Amino acid sequence: MLERGLASTRVADIAKATNVSGGLIHYHFATKDDLITAMLRATSETEVKRLREIISGPGTAVQRLDRVLRYYIPSSRSDQSWILWLDAWALGVREPHVREILLELEGGWIEILAEVISEGVDKGEFFCDDPMGAAERLDGMLDGLVVRYTLHSGAMSRKRLLEHARIAATHEVGIPRSAFPA
User: Fold this and answer.
1) What CATH number did the domain enclosing 54 receive?
2) Is residue 135 part of a domain?
């Protein structure tokens, strides 16, 4: 699916790539849509679980928020997870089963961001009247920047993208830029 895209991949392509019969795949998944749904849902659940692990680690609210930002930003333009999600976003415009999973994933990210921000507010580290709104804005901004980073080689480095994310986060949670690592 990463080579051909979600829409263009056939069950036969998957069977060949995984060295199993198409019949075995159809035994477990009635349609290609069912297979895509299961794959995206499993990937989404894994990412949200990993994010939960990241925020449950030690450190201040700023350190935890910074770990979330660094995790969100792909390690390279060829990051296979982000390429999969970009492809899923395009497919989700027309396919309700994909759109539903994308909304679940976005909801998970936003909920976790809001949780980190709320905990920072409760501890007096952050100053934010609307943690959910701040999380939604940060999520939307990061999505846009990551799309630009992934699609436009040379337009922005990962380091610059992270700097934009940190600056936006400082505005959202009411702290100075110096609170984040250099």
Assistant:
1) 1.10.357.10
2) yes
